[in-house]
Amino acid sequence: MTAVDYVREQMILDNNLAKFKAGDTITVFYKIKEGEKERVQQFQGVVLQVKTATFTVRKISNGIGVERIFPIDSPAIESIKIDKTGKVRRARIFYQRDRIGKKARIKERRS
Q: What are the Cα distances from residue 65, in Å, to 4, 30, 55, 96?
């Protein structure tokens, strides 16, 4: 186990985050402060990449692609739920940006 793997594992254990990788469809529950009020908002999409400190999630909203980069150690992330595990061969699947409709499908990995 390398030092980077160890640090990432400790961050995941500290934040109670699920283990996910590129191609997985996840829902990120994160806190938003509006004045004095605080609420939890969901962002559901496909993970494009996972780095040591951040991960990128992409979804299609009203026909427009929306990407959001989340810091792994952010206190604003309440939880992460894995909806589907994707079957991809790469760690960074930026080619998904160019695909539309049925071509953009990712096969599901059987568990």
A: 31, 20, 16, 10
Helix (H, G, I), strand (E, B) or coil at 90: coil
Residue 64: C-alpha distances to residues 20, 60, 67 (Å): 24, 5, 10
Identify the band that residue 34 occupies on the pLDDT scale cut at 50, 70 and 90.
very high
C-alpha angle with apex 72: 106 to 25, nearest 5 degrees? 15
pTM for this one? 0.80
DSSP 12: H
Cα distances (Å, whole numbers) of residue 63 to 2, 43, 73, 106: 41, 16, 31, 18
